[in-house]
Specification:
Helix content is about 35%, strand content about 25%. It has three helices and ten strands, in the order αβββααβββββββ. The chain has helices spanning about 10-60, 95-105, 105-110; strands at about 65-75, 80-85, 90, 115, 120-125, 130-135, 145-150, 170-175, 175, 180-185.
Length: about 190
C-alpha cells in the first residue's frame, strides 16, 4: 500500500483558502465592530438629548454654553455616584435636576463612557473622542448641538482642521452627509 503525501500545489491552495477566509472574517468583524460603536454613540447622544429635554420640561432650562465644550461629569470617589454634570459654563448639580436627568440618560450606563482627565471625567463617544455640547446651538439654533467626532477622532470632514462646522452646510457635500461625526442634528 502506497502512502500519499500532499503536493506543494495542494498545500499552497489550502493556505491561500485559509488566508482568504481569514481576511473575509476580519473584514466582517471590523465592519460589525464599527457599526456597533456607531450605534452605541447614536444611542448615547439620543439619551443625553432626552435628558436635556427633561431638564427643559421639568425645570425650565437647557444648560447654557456659549461655545462648544466637553461635557464633564463629577463622580464621587467614595460612593461612585455622579454628583454633577457640567455643560460648558453651566453645571447641573441640584439633586432633583440631576436625578431627573440621570433617570432618562441611565447614569450607570453613562459611566462606561467617562474618561478621567485632569481631575474630572469627560464624556466620550464609543471611540473615546469627546462629546461636545453647545446651547444655543449653531445648527439647532432653538435647541442645542451635541456632536461626537466618530471613528476618525476629528470633527468635520476629512482634510480640514479639527473644528466643528457651525452650519449644516459645513457637514454636507452634494447634499450628502460628508463626515463621520455623530450629532443630534443629522
Amino acid at each position: 500500500m502506497k502512502k500519499k503525501n500532499f503536493t506543494l500545489v495542494e498545500l499552497l491552495c489550502a493556505t491561500a483558502l485559509v488566508v482568504i477566509l481569514a481576511g473575509i472574517g476580519f473584514s466582517a468583524y471590523s465592519y460589525a465592530s464599527h457599526r456597533g460603536k456607531e450605534a452605541a454613540t447614536k444611542s448615547l447622544i439620543t439619551r443625553i438629548g432626552a435628558g436635556l429635554e427633561t431638564l427643559k420640561t421639568k425645570h425650565g432650562f437647557f444648560p447654557a454654553s456659549s461655545s462648544y465644550g466637553n461635557i464633564e461629569v463629577t463622580v464621587n470617589d467614595n460612593t461612585g455616584l455622579i454628583t454633577a454634570i457640567s455643560f460648558g459654563s453651566t453645571s447641573v448639580s441640584d439633586a432633583k435636576q440631576l436625578k431627573d436627568f440621570l433617570a432618562v440618560v441611565d447614569g450607570e450606563n453613562l459611566k462606561k463612557y467617562l474618561v478621567e482627565h485632569s481631575g474630572h471625567h469627560d464624556l466620550t463617544d464609543a471611540w473615546g473622542g469627546p462629546i461636545k455640547y453647545k446651547y444655543p446651538g449653531s445648527i439647532n439654533t432653538v435647541k442645542f448641538d451635541l456632536i461626537a467626532p466618530g471613528a476618525d477622532g476629528g470633527f468635520g470632514t476629512a482634510g480640514e482642521e479639527d473644528t466643528i462646522p457651525t452650519t449644516l452646510s459645513g457637514y454636507r457635500e452634494n447634499n450628502e452627509w460628508a463626515c463621520d461625526d455623530i450629532a443630534n442634528f443629522k
